[in-house]
Design a protein that fits this description.
The chain is an alpha/beta fold and 322 residues long. It has 13 helices and 11 strands. The strands form 3 sheets. It has a 7-stranded mixed beta sheet, sandwiched between helices. Strands 3-4 form a two-stranded antiparallel sheet. It has a two-stranded parallel ribbon with strand order 8-9. The longest helix has 18 residues.
Length: 322
């Protein structure tokens, strides 16, 4: 793909930005992807000043593009800043407003939601931020519909994520949205990171110490992933794990922040997406091989999970012809 045709992602680096979120953005969007044989994005960093002091003075960033790079961005990423009470530079807020007004996709990592809200682009919109700043965020920005107990929120052209590691969850979600499940899975394998943690999962899961420690869910998850075309039920998963369905449900909530049925449905939809990407055009075959039963059920669940019908998904991510 020619470089000029790539979707352009620009990360805004402001005074006291957190290097971790900056690294997440660079890893997901900025690196060459030898695992898939092509570059996914035209990626660059920009800042309002020639020298930008990073969080706690860890280092000073130089040699990046000026703030005007946001005027050419297809996606703007605003990373974390711990000083959420400090007003942002007027030039930064103005650049964010300009990018949003002309239709750029806006992404806020962690407390980057404060910057987007201060710029006024989150009014009336859904968003999330790190749980420890939820009260402060609501107090300052009452017009934003904050969802504090999720990993990330996809509100169409504005996406926000919770605590630091959720930046990777949101980044992979964006790759999946832009390039499909197959590419997103390849990137996640390279990162050695979970391919898909749903945005609705809880940010923070209490883990009380049990009298007898539970074993990891990994074996039963792997067992189920190899049998998605079978009519698996929660009872089947519980039997494989040698626990009751109630205990399995509790362990899923504790370890994954979701339910067994939601996890199973998500895995099956992901498999269906990959089958479509690999060229399977028969929806009844896709539905059967992914364990979703009928083409009607496939259509309903794909629309719910991805926002696309199977036909739209094939048009966007299916094999290229010609």
């Amino acid at each position: 793909m020619p470089q000029e045709s790539l979707h352009r992602v620009v990360v805004l680096v402001d005074e006291n930005s957190n290097p971790f979120e900056l690294g997440c953005a660079t890893e997901v969007f900025g690196l060459r992807r030898p695992e898939i044989g092509r570059v996914l994005y035209d990626f660059r960093l920009c800042a309002a000043a020639p020298r930008t002091r990073m969080r706690d003075g860890f280092f000073t960033l130089t040699g990046v593009a000026p703030l005007t790079a946001l005027d050419e961005a297809d996606t703007v990423i605003v990373p974390n800043r711990p000083d959420v009470e400090t007003p942002r530079r007027p030039a930064v807020l103005a650049a964010i407003r300009r990018a949003h007004a002309r239709g750029a996709r806006m992404i806020g990592f962690c407390s980057g939601a404060f910057t987007l809200a201060e710029a006024g682009v989150l009014d009336g919109r859904r968003a999330t931020a790190h749980w420890q700043w939820a009260d402060a965020f609501r107090s300052r920005f009452p017009r934003v519909r904050l969802e504090p107990d999720v990993l990330f929120v996809d509100d169409g052209d504005i996406l926000t994520s919770a605590g630091s590691a959720a930046a990777l969850d949101l980044g992979l979600h964006v790759v999946r949205r832009d390039h499909g499940a197959e590419v997103a899975n390849a990137v996640s394998r390279r990162l050695v990171f979970a391919a898909h943690r749903d945005g609705g999962q809880r940010q923070f899961v209490d883990r009380p110490v049990p009298d007898i420690p539970d074993e990891s869910l990994a074996p039963v998850l792997a067992w189920a992933q190899e049998r998605l075309d079978h009519p698996l039920t929660v009872a089947d998963l519980a039997a494989q794990a040698a626990v009751s369905p109630a205990t399995l449900h509790r362990r899923f909530r504790t370890e994954l922040g979701t339910t067994p049925l939601s996890w199973l449905t998500g895995e099956r939809v992901t498999l269906a997406c990959r089958l479509i990407e690999r060229g399977e055009a028969r929806l009844d075959v896709v539905a059967r091989r992914a364990g979703l039963g009928t083409a009607t059920n496939l259509r309903a669940l794909m629309r719910r999970e991805t926002g696309l019908t199977p036909t739209d998904y094939r048009r966007r991510f299916g094999p290229r012809t010609g």
